[in-house]
Design brief:
The structure is a homodimer. By secondary structure, the first copy, chain A, is of the alpha+beta class. Helices cover 44% and strands 18% of the residues of chain A. In chain A, helix 3 crosses helix 4. Chain A is globular. Chain A starts with 5 loop residues before the first helix and ends with a helix. The mean pLDDT of chain A is 88. Chains A and B meet through strand 3, helix 5, strand 5 and helix 6 of A and strand 3, helix 5, strand 5 and helix 6 of B. Chain A binds a DNA duplex through helix 4.
Chain lengths: 150, 150
DNA sequence: GTATCTGCAAATTTTTTGCCAGTAG
DNA sequence: CTACTGGCAAAAAATTTGCAGATAC
């Protein structure tokens, strides 16, 4: 484990303890990888990436670790109905843009003004809103050109 | 088939023809059910509901029909990473509210002002936005009370 | 008439689980 | 110590697919 991983590990340790769970090397490795990438990897991609660092880890453990991280609020599970779920290690408010051509997910900064949210809440009568997710769909810079020409 | 289904069938027929696909009783039954409910049924739920009307239909055909409808723009596939995908037959702009307790999905009227969208598009540089999806999370009226007391 | 569609069952893909040994606290 | 975890392999759940007969147009 490199020096600069220590703060990341501390964050994880505290989140785990707050949820009555134990700190383990496997969970740390999964979390370090998630926190270090701006991609939105599948469980299998996490597995492959982590295995090169921590040789002994199983795919089942990756699934269990990811679920634990989601439960502790350190990761988000994203599903799009096209195969595997993806995981996002960013916990600050942000949105996603999904390319309809290459299926990659990109982070988008910015958030909805609270007035917009209030207005939406009114539309959802009798519903107690605790959060929201916004996803843009379209074409990324790599695919956009192809799509326009086609 | 009842009299008031005819317009629904015509909509389906035109959408299918526009996509070079054939009109079949199975697809019509699936579409009629989807268009008639404000629930957001899983493929299996569609299968069970449709089977009571059209006795001979298989689950595989329901999956294929749903995929066809999505391809024709007559339905939307919703996934939340908790088991099966759900399907939504509403095609007008609207949002969803998902209850974190009972996992039901509710329709929410209203849409984002275009100025908000433009602002978000700026945040997604080099991304050609063609649409968006907004999902509120929280607790529905049935679960809200329980959750507050718990 | 012919390309497309359906039903069936088997296959695939993704994710979860049971169980025993290992480890954190 | 003792309960929580990880690894493994098997199971479960969801969805897709190959193929032969049926059907829309």
């Amino acid at each position: 484990m490199s020096q600069q991983d220590q703060p990341t590990d501390e964050v994880l340790r505290e989140a785990l303890e707050a949820n009555g769970q134990r700190f383990t090397e496997q969970r740390a490795a999964v979390y370090r990888f998630l926190a270090s990438t701006d991609k939105h990897p599948t469980a299998d991609e996490v597995f492959l990436a982590v295995r090169s660092e921590v040789p002994v880890i199983s795919l089942a453990t990756v699934y269990k670790s990811l679920e634990t991280l989601v439960g502790c609020g350190l990761a988000m599970k994203l599903t799009y109905g096209d195969g595997s779920a993806r995981y996002d290690g960013r916990t600050d408010p942000h949105h996603h843009a999904r390319c309809l051509s290459c299926t990659r997910i990109f982070d988008v900064s910015g958030r909805l003004p609270s007035e917009e949210l209030s207005e939406l809440e009114e539309g959802a009568k009798d519903f107690h809103v605790t959060g929201y997710r916004l996803e843009l769909t379209g074409y990324c810079s790599d695919c956009g050109r192809v799509s326009v020409e086609a």
